[in-house]
Amino acid sequence: MKIKRALLSVSDKSGIVDLAKVLKYFDIELISTGGTKKALTDAGIEVTDISQVTKNPEAFGGRMKTISFNVESALLFDRERDSQEAQLLGIQPIDLVVCNLYPFDKVLAESADFDTLIENIDIGGPTMVRAAAKNFKYVTVLTKPQDYEMFTKEISASGGSTTYEFRKRMMTAAFNHTADYDALIAQTMDSESGNYSLRLAFEGGTILRYGENAHQNALMYRMKGKQNTYFDMKILHGKEISYNNILDISGAVNAVRELPGNACAVVKHSNPCGLSSGINQRKALEQAWQGDPISAFGSIIAFNTPLTRDTVEFFELNHANPAKRKFIEVVIAPRIEEDALQYLQLNKNLRVIEFDMTKMTFDFDLRFVDGVLLQQDTDRMLYEKLELVTISEFSKDKNRPLIEFGLNVVKNIKSNAICIVGQNDSNFYLLGMGAGQPNRLISTELAISKAKAFIQADFNEQLADFETFYADKIKDVILISDAFFPFPDNVELAASQGIRTIVQPGGSIKDKAVIDTCNTLGINMIFTGIRHFRH
Amino acid sequence: MKIKRALLSVSDKSGIVDLAKVLKYFDIELISTGGTKKALTDAGIEVTDISQVTKNPEAFGGRMKTISFNVESALLFDRERDSQEAQLLGIQPIDLVVCNLYPFDKVLAESADFDTLIENIDIGGPTMVRAAAKNFKYVTVLTKPQDYEMFTKEISASGGSTTYEFRKRMMTAAFNHTADYDALIAQTMDSESGNYSLRLAFEGGTILRYGENAHQNALMYRMKGKQNTYFDMKILHGKEISYNNILDISGAVNAVRELPGNACAVVKHSNPCGLSSGINQRKALEQAWQGDPISAFGSIIAFNTPLTRDTVEFFELNHANPAKRKFIEVVIAPRIEEDALQYLQLNKNLRVIEFDMTKMTFDFDLRFVDGVLLQQDTDRMLYEKLELVTISEFSKDKNRPLIEFGLNVVKNIKSNAICIVGQNDSNFYLLGMGAGQPNRLISTELAISKAKAFIQADFNEQLADFETFYADKIKDVILISDAFFPFPDNVELAASQGIRTIVQPGGSIKDKAVIDTCNTLGINMIFTGIRHFRH
User: Which residue range forms the structural domain that includes residue A397?
Assistant: First the structure.
């Protein structure tokens, strides 16, 4: 379709003068309105005023500018079926509409008053855009300055026309534009009436191999406009990413993204079972692995700093004995150094991903549950206080970094969650965790049994007996609970295993009994005031 | 605002004749178009043709009917600021628009061809509706037949006018209508271009007391148009429903909704820790409770059949010793019989909910993960086959109902999941489960330890010694795994505890070693071909 007449009416004027020059180069007549016309005229570009087409004056404080039998007919008539009728009615075709709408989003973001919001609801713009889009078989519609360049290439290549494919693409963009526009208006008006509604748009749906299981089809979408999500991962090597990979990656990157230093998380079934943070990345990986060396088999491993060759050599991917090579599913880090990548490529299936999780930003979580949507603030506050509630000598300040590490761990583990954390030099690490249990005592048992295995791995029988070694190590760890203890039984269990310090939110009606038990057993107990359930 | 002129142009004609009669009663002039005009004229109602207002002919196969300077001016001009200008331009106000749009949704549902879809994109309708809505300070807009009754009351009460509040409400409904309309068009056009997008609308947002934790604000929304969701729960008694209640309720109702007979689930931290199904509801509750009597404290309990007094008396809510009263958070059933409700009200906090979970229908699950959306088919297929892979005598047909019960349990437990199920008479029950572990062997250990406690609860030391009793009970249970066994260790553990039958998907490269171990240890093993991961 050769373009002969174009209507330009934009609120966002970026790029419009350059576009108009391109159109003029192809001898296209330009029709324009108000501010757009002024911008073009100021740039020395000749423009027909819209009223010469509408045959009506601009009226009612600008509320009526384009809407008219003539303009919408010029956009809507079928160039084949209706051409004679158009001629009889004196309608000349308009072949291109360049239009973006009154900036309702911008005035909303500026907290404009209600009347200003209403005045910024565009009526003429959506009408033109939608009319042109409906008739995309003949008419081109541009709704975003970002599309001008592509359009310019398109008409330059063809000497002034556009292809059906291009027009169809722009039509689709146009309806997305008006859908976004009215979605925001509807949501705003609901909220102005005291009703909460939410309209979410997802795009770029990618078909995954399957869902959680092979008999479930699945797709992944990007939330419209959201940056730094798993959609922006760069997969440098390995097999296609699966649905379960995404869930595990989420568990892993959330576990490390707020930690200081070089952090490493080992995740299985979306729970971190190993986690460490310190000055040395290789050491962090070794300690994270030690958190649960059995479960680490087939795990997802995330780092919050650029991944080095020294670190990844821990996986022994070129070990002469294939059974000694550490099998993992995914490695993810903000950057993968070239020599590290080369080494990781020794495993042809291993997914190696660059993704800067430290740039992720989330104010709220959304959860779809069987047709309802739950929305909540993201769980960001680690603690409200660190209150020593027992009669004991314990330096909160000295232990604060370890407690903060542990709270970050526990908030990323599914409830009921217990974790046991420790430190050596400036490294923090998870010794063991218990997750997803209906009974908190079982989580504590699981965490302690993992912690024992962790300590066992460091044990050298030539230097000490295990009991002495264990007692010496366990006394310095901290056990952290995601929620309060309803009874003293967890404290008794922890104390019987040599644990000396427990951190929990507090707030149970049995707090006094729990604290009394701590005092009797010589346990330090710290209340944080903040629960960290996660389901 | 006294209504003097109304424009009626509807695609869905239900109720339009009655509405027109009401308008006529208040001496309101009716302007109308095409099919709507015919319907009204056929009913003997006098109508002004739209072309008398537009001063234009209907043109281009109906694409141009209403769009005109005159109609949109009549809707849009400010009745105060612009009244003189309107008079000069000969514009008479239109005070009411009744309009619903070309049925794009209907033709889409009928799998119409692309041209028909395009022809069913309404241009004039949304323009009128949006213009009227923008000028709601003066103009009333009705976009749904369901609103006619409310409108009729409104103008009847006032003698022919509407209130600002009513017009604002209808304005909000109108922008929701056009937002929905363009959302569907945009999504459809994306899909026509081979792009997958999703636009979801949620409404009726209710503020919850808080989210998963007290420092997180939260809301619950209904997915637009979705029926039989937690939004439709009838809360007959007790405290406000919390965010975590919804998650637990989902775990509980999904566990029972597809089970035969009288089923009961006891859920804690969204995993069923007790589950039973049989001919007697009270018995089902008792057995479900026995699945984990410790965790049942503070649990959510769901039934799939009307809840009777006999059943709920199990909770002993009027026990003389308050410590013997069973503390639970939520009871939910399709119906609560009156005397059962009376009994449950003995606990003033207990949430008692009527909700028919058997009517829930879901084709897909949505999961929002840090800014991306995962969509997958709901996990509905229990098994692809029941293949006995060991050399053993085992009747699949006799055991099919129990295996189906167990697969339904395991698919509702978070992975790694192991469950142990049994039956007596025609009752099926869960003896123990292990959930959410990074290491499957730990899940098996947890499930076995719970199963032992379950059997212990039935034990009477006057009749037998425990070992004999246990061995006799455990030999008939079935252990079910949500995914394949990567090694024979789980089989060895199960066999050492007296378990004789194991059901799992199969598909590991180690299947042969696993089967060989079963044959050596005299274990029946069934492959289902279907994994049931759930995270």
Answer: 383-527
